[in-house]
Design goal:
globular, mainly alpha, two-stranded antiparallel sheet, 2 domains, Arc Repressor Mutant, subunit A
């Protein structure tokens, strides 16, 4: 985390923006801790569940690309979540060697609950922002996401020398 500058120290716009970004990210900590306390889910496990919720039948490979982790790591996450009754893995109807991942009732319930809580909490944090502030925030965050997607594509290419299908899709 960034060390706050002393009052007489000049701060670059980048450093100031990064400090505010980290403070804003920390605002989500109470939700993360509640999810951990009630469901025993880490942020990565919850992100995986949310991706499956958005794309039922998603493959291991696509999850690895979207989560920015290795396929063996995805397999370990899937194993734990399957044992916990959050999801199931079925044989792919189009490729007998592949699997399709789908949420079980517990996973559906958690995703729905978390989505509603995060939306309500975030809306509460933003309720005093003007339409102009919200538009400016949306533009800045969209640019940051685009930069992250470009970075992820480059990292994936250098990792194994090939472009992943997800990287192609997100670059469009």
């Amino acid at each position: 985390m960034l060390t706050p500058p002393s009052p007489d120290q000049a701060v670059s716009p980048l450093e100031a923006a990064m400090a505010e970004f980290f403070k804003a990210s920390a605002l989500m900590e109470p939700l993360r801790l509640r999810i951990w306390d009630t469901e025993g889910l880490t942020v990565t496990q919850l992100r995986l569940l949310m991706l499956v919720s958005d794309a039922p039948g998603i493959s291991n490979a696509e999850l690895a690309d979207r989560l920015y982790i290795t396929r063996p790591s995805v397999s370990a996450l899937l194993e734990r979540l399957e044992r916990g009754g959050f999801l199931r893995r079925d044989i792919s109807p189009t490729d007998r060697r592949g699997i399709c991942i789908k949420l079980e009732d517990r996973g559906l319930r958690v995703c729905s609950q978390v989505s509603n809580e995060v939306r309500d909490y975030t809306a509460g944090l933003m309720k005093d922002l003007s339409e102009g502030d919200l538009a400016e925030l949306q533009r800045a965050l969209a640019k940051m996401v685009e930069a992250g997607e470009r970075r992820r594509l480059l990292d994936l290419q250098s990792e194994d020398g090939r472009v992943h299908e997800f990287a192609h899709a997100s670059a469009r």
